[in-house]
Specification:
alpha/beta; 7-stranded mixed sheet
Length: 143
């Protein structure tokens, strides 16, 4: 009986984390589809799970090589390659918005809910156009 309960718990835990990643990827894909940059969107992330899941999207190209990326999705500042000077950066932690001034926005979980913040001045600085669908998430500054 204990083995059954343990197996059931492990299965439910894996299913829940898979659902969380899928939701996170869908939100990131929506954000990326709603911005326009002057280059082809090629995504690199230090979160390999996200990169793998994004490969399934026909409209978003991913790369295993950060040197080929035009957009970086960053989870940990320590993983930011020095050669990403020309990349547009989107972070997965609100605190990284302050720590990575080249980042234009963040997606993070707070109190069990997804949150999106996009900084208006950084959009302008990076020559990024955001569709009106992103207007509710645009902030004047990092708070």
């Amino acid at each position: 009986m204990r083995a059954f309960l343990l197996a059931l718990f492990c299965t439910l835990s894996l299913a829940a984390s898979d659902t969380s990643i899928n939701l996170q990827v869908k939100i990131l894909e929506k954000i990326l589809n709603e911005i326009s940059i002057n280059k082809e969107k090629i995504i690199w992330s230090d979160n390999k799970t996200i990169c793998q899941a994004m490969k399934k999207n026909k409209h978003i190209h991913t790369t295993p090589d950060h040197k080929q990326a035009t957009i970086v999705i960053l989870q940990d500042k320590n993983n930011l390659p020095k050669k990403c000077a020309d990349c547009i950066i989107f972070v997965l932690d609100y605190e990284l918005l302050s720590k990575v001034p080249k980042s234009f926005g963040a997606f993070f979980w707070k109190k069990g809910r997804p949150n999106i913040v996009i900084i208006k001045s950084r959009l302008k600085t990076l020559s990024i156009q955001a569709s009106s669908d992103l207007d509710p998430y645009i902030e004047e500054k990092v708070w």
